Amino acid sequence: MILETERAAVCAYARRMVGDGLVVGTSGNVSVRAGDLVAVTPTGVAYSSLNPADVPVVDLGGQVVDGSLKPTSELPMHLSVYWDVRDPDREPVTAVVHTHSPHATAVSTLVREVPPIHYILATIGPSVRVARYATYGTPELASAVLEALEGRRGCLMANHGTLTYGDGLEAAYHRAQQLEWACRVWLLAQSAGRPALLPPPEVANVVDRLRGYGQT
């Protein structure tokens, strides 16, 4: 079985999305790229019962090269990220996570850009845009997401959910979690009053500081 490790990781993170409350049912999807192949969640399959053999492998043109199940309907969006995204710090793009996390989805209906409520948003970029609405699974949605991702590592999708990417599923998933957390904080704060927001120069400062964050 090709991409066995990657397919196992897709299963593990798909189940984790459910457990962490970032999706319900069969919504949301994840993928991992290895060379010119991509392991991606199948469409309409409960993640609790997913096993590596169920995970289809496609080429960068979207053709299934291994597996008997159809890939997620959001495959065009995943592939567009692998083809076209250029990370601002040249981080390899080897994993994509798409969630329907509730707080981030709620925020996507209220604003065109996530308010800078906390510096953790700088892990995505100098701001987090909301992609214009388009029907799920369409080239129009993939195009809208790419526009919102310019110079960013993630975005919200209007009335839909989130997309984040990174070098490996751990990095992409961590960004999805932090994005959902920040959106929850903003919703809580604005429900109680008028939250103070970070000024753009401070967000830019944190973006720069995060380039050297962590262990070398």
From TrEMBL:
GO biological process, one term: pentose catabolic process
InterPro entries in the cross-refs: Aldolase_class_II_sugar_metab, Aldolase_II/adducin_N, Aldolase_II/adducin_N_sf
Gene Ontology terms for molecular function: aldehyde-lyase activity; metal ion binding
Transmembrane regions: none
Class II aldolase/adducin N-terminal domain location: 8-187
Entry keyword Coiled coil: no
The keyword Metal-binding appears for this protein: yes
Keyword vocabulary terms for this entry: Lyase, Metal-binding
Record's GO cellular component terms: cytosol
Record-given protein name: Class II aldolase/adducin family protein
Species in which this protein is naturally found: Amycolatopsis iheyensis
Source taxonomy: Bacteria, Bacillati, Actinomycetota, Actinomycetes, Pseudonocardiales
